[in-house]
Amino acid sequence: MTTGTSTGADAAMGSGTRDPYAAGSFAPDPGAAPLPRMIRAQALLETRMLLRNGEQLLLTVVIPALLLVLFGTVDIVDTGKGSSVDFLAPGVLALAVLSTAFTGQAIATGFERRYGVLKRLGASPLPRWALMTAKTCSVLVTEALQVALLTVIAFALGWSPHGNPAAVVLLLLLGTAAFSGLGLLMAGTLKAEATLAAANLVFLLLLVGGGVLVPLDKFSGGVQAALKLLPITALSGGLRDVLQHGAGVPWGDLGILAVWAVAGLAAAARFFRWE
């Protein structure tokens, strides 16, 4: 009886019936998804997690918007000639990039590293460089939402921007790269609690001394020269030159941002610890 059954099965397979155990016959087929799909899924997850985090949302969206409304409607800081919102809007756009690409990303990545999230993701089919790419995409999506919101608020306050939009986009992208590298370097080398304290401290210091709300001419000459080398000063100053004064491409500010971007990303790639 057994022989007959085997013979019948062999005959059926020999007559063209597919072997149910042949390679590729299982559905769904086990294995990693295509790399672009994995990056897109991780980027969407990172963006949803960021937007659902109340503290991060306060830092990245609410604080820049409130500062723009407060300083744009109340004469707190002497911004020189012209409308105060014309001076403040470019600086607040730079602050939005700082809050998302540096402060928010450093804190979130630092605690992911502490709780072992990065270690587990590093063992997944998603390569580590692709994980960082997904985080960068999440930062860019969040920044696009920030810029849209702040632009609407600034227009409501009477903002009249000038200049080349391509120069603005280039400044924002280079600023994002510079601050992302510095944020990942901090998150990958310090403990999570130290990253939390240091990132918030840097945010406050650059808010005051980075030309965001307070004009650089309020500082002494030596301090001004040092502050002009900071990425936040280059970003806010470059955006202000283009959007307020209608200048061309600010190559000097772009050069400073490019140096910070290369140095920060290279250092993050070299010293970042996943555990």
Descriptive key words:
275 residues; 11 helices; disordered N terminus
Could you explain how this protein is built, in words?
The protein has 275 residues and is mainly alpha-helical. The protein contains eleven helices and no strands. Helix 2 crosses helix 6, helix 4 (84-114) runs parallel beside helix 7 (165-189) and helix 4 (84-114) packs antiparallel against helix 10. The longest helix is centred in the middle third of the chain and has 31 residues, at 84-114. The chain is globular. Residues 1-13 have low confidence and may be disordered.
- Helix coverage percent: over 70%
Which residue ranges are poorly predicted, with pLDDT under 50 across at least 5 consecutive positions?
A: 1-13
Give the H and E element order. Answer: HHHHHHHHHHH
Give the structural class: mainly alpha
Broad shape = globular
The mean pLDDT is: 86
Task: State the end-to-end CA separation.
Answer: 61 Å
Percent strand equals under 5%
Radius of gyration from CA coordinates: 25 Å
The biggest sheet, with number of strands, parallel, antiparallel or mixed sense and barrel status, is:
none
Record the SSE blueprint:
Blueprint: H1 2-14, H2 35-52, H3 54-73, H4 84-114, H5 117-122, H6 128-156, H7 165-189, H8 192-209, H9 221-227, H10 231-243, H11 251-271
Q: What's this, in brief?
A:
This protein is an all-alpha fold and 275 residues long. The protein has one domain (34-271).
